[in-house]
Amino acid sequence: MERETLFIAFSTQKGGVGKTAFTVLLSSYMHYLDGKSVAVIDCDFPQHSIMEMRKRDSELVINDPFYKRMAFNQFREISGKAYPVIGSKPADAIQDAEKLIAGSETKIDIIFFDLPGTMNSKGVVMTLREMDYIFSPVSADRLVLASTLSFASSLNENLISVGKSRIKALNLFWTMVDAREKTPLYDAYVDAIEELGLSVLKTHIPDTKRFRREMDETHRAFFRSTVFPPDRQLIKGTRVDELVTEIYQIINV
């Protein structure tokens, strides 16, 4: 039976390319700007980075009048609340997601899963096979590329192509793109990737420090938050909006 809620993971074996950052960015963009009903299962045990971010964000909203006013105005405007962030372990993630869906008063459109960066962690493969879509951030660094291709090829050969998963599509996408790097370099990489039977999104995400900006006491514009969307002015030039559009086309939302 087809699920009504889509399960999506930004997943890769290589750390430092932004799988957790993109989970937060896309969740907040889709929920707060596009009105999608979103939830996050943070099963990157034991650090639970997104759970910790939600805790920091919530404390600022509770204790800082500036953010408290922002939250009041936002939730009045969108007639909704912050999306749920549930802490879990890879082996328990699907069960926890199903409990969340069963207990929700309204339909959840998308649940994003933040998983550990290694296939060797208990339950990771079991959880990945239950995803509807997987998106793997990759940079032009050879070590990152080799690790990501090994990860994606393994999933494709052992789960997707042999019909042992729910996965409808696995797509890589370029991130941390240096503007000085030549397009032919990426074209050559894409050709090699496609020869392995893998797909790459058209959107290239540039390398920018804006992605690191979180809520703080200075009240400056921020990019990453679990209770607010990324600042519209900061979005410009990051191509995050283009990434969201391309993902919507793939997942048929």
From TrEMBL:
Q: Which organism is it from?
A: Dysgonomonas macrotermitis
Q: Cross-referenced PANTHER family, in alphabetical order?
A: P-LOOP CONTAINING NUCLEOSIDE TRIPHOSPHATE HYDROLASE, PARA FAMILY PROTEIN CT_582
User: Residue ranges of the CobQ/CobB/MinD/ParA nucleotide binding domain?
Assistant: 8-214
The name of this protein is Cellulose biosynthesis protein BcsQ
In Pfam terms, one family for this protein is CbiA
